Amino acid sequence: MIRERVASAYNWFDERTAVRSLVRKGLYEAVPVRGSWFYTLGSATLILILLQLITGIFLTMLYVPSVTEAWASLEFLKQHDAFGSIVRGIHLWSAYVLLFVLGLHMIRTFFSGSYKRPRELNWVTGTGLFVLVLGMAITGAFLPWDQAAYWTAVVVTNIPAYTPLIGSFVRALWRGGDFVGPVTLVRTFGIHVWLIPVILFPLIGAHLALLRKHGEHGSYVNYLGAYRAREGVDVPPAPKQRPIEPPYPAAPSEEVWAAPLETEDFYPHQTFKDGIVSAVLVVVVFVLAVAIGAPLEAIADPSTTNYTPVPEWFYLPLDQLLVLVPQQLIGLSLVLPAGGVVVMLLLPFIDRGPERNPFERPAVMVPGAFAVLFVVILTLLGSGRLFNQ
Amino acid sequence: MGLRDPRRLSRRQFGLLGTQVAGATVAILLGIPIVGFILSPLFRRQPVAEATVGDISNVPDRQPTKFVVQFPAGDWTSAKVNAAVYVVRTGSDLKIFSNTCTHMQCPVHWDASLNEFLCPCHGGLYDMDGRNVGGPPPKPLPQYVHRLDGTTLYVENRFTESL
Questions:
Q1: Shared domain check, B99 and B37
Q2: How far apart are CA B111 and CA B134, in angstroms?
Q3: Domain carrying residue B119
Q4: What is the CB neighbour count within 10 angstroms for residue B19?
Q5: What is the ipTM of this complex?
Q6: pLDDT at residue A258, as a whole number
Q7: Which residue of A175, B86, B88, B159 has the fewest CB atoms within a 10 Å radius of its CB?
């Protein structure tokens, strides 16, 4: 009886919205069988960004973006609002975990060659998302207006000043004057809660739409190209694809890399793995939020002479560049990261060969591995400062 | 149809032109005030404020001494913000330094054991005369615009050279 009522209501709704085909399209897409634990990094990134959105929305219901009130409002939260403190803790720790998982997601995509035709724009939108998430992280770090936040604001807004010609102009634009002050905080707040998110979330939509258009690439072992090389047979098995919504086109020039040989349904096979990984990460974030929480140092004091500003950990490689780059070449600390982003954006257009197997494309893998190693080494070199106060 | 004068707009071209004009109008009417709003702090002058450091007759020779003054936090707020003032007396010469490092504007402090100003962020060093003598700082330590009335020192919320 109730089942029929529900089914009837669903039919009524479906007739007016076509929701059924949307759900089927969403759930029963074909994904490659092999390597699917690695695809959970993307969905985990999405879940963690949504966690940011949700906790961030609720944090605006207490936080006051003003130099006179910001620190006090968070101190009040810390003293008098246990649940609010957990919400802030989740916001901070899921941001940290997000940056880490996002990095793994990018490395996975890089090594599997998933950025190759026709997925170049998946990679380009992903690079844009990476930059925007870093922007969220750095603007978010200004907002508590404690000592850590204040000195992060001072140093970070000062970095653009080393851009030739327009440098001090850009710095004044962000600060709303020559020095960090009331406008700096409220501008950064606006950038953090509106300007970046209204670009970030539609871009996530585009990233996902492209993913759905081309399907998961997965691992090279799923493909005819690798199968031929591996098995030495010329007549390979036909792709065993699911009947519903196979997203894989057979691009004539790269037929052997167009569609995976064996696929399974997104639901429930991939959603199970996605769900497990995301749930574990959310539990980790929750435990960190409760056990450690989000720190709040003493209120910002520009006159301090005994405070040692320490960069956020995700910012360590950049800050270490500032330490290592000689005074005459200070522009390098801007050029290297900017150049890195440009190279990332261009990667799919530089590495255009069809080969997906990472061991068969050393010309890209070796410089890529060195780039990752360079960032890791800079982080390790700088990491002493996190504990050395 | 074939007899249409090519110099005249077709109905379709007219529609296209109208759409573009409408879109451009909206973009310009929104864009001008928004861009102006974003740029406006560049054209606002922060009012010069003066703060009293106090009597500096007791500041010892060749021993940088820190004072803390309060300046208006600026813009709409009536709040005050702290600023550190290092007074360095060398004989009859007086230099009034900020604690702002010229590298990344971190807070420097006088390190008596080094006999230099040290920036804790990236290891910048300045000697007692404010000269950048080590590490990444590109310029000497900034000095406040100041005046001395007898033995009472006043500083303004600006430096002798822009950072």
A1: no
A2: 14
A3: 50-159
A4: 10
A5: 0.92
A6: 77
A7: B159
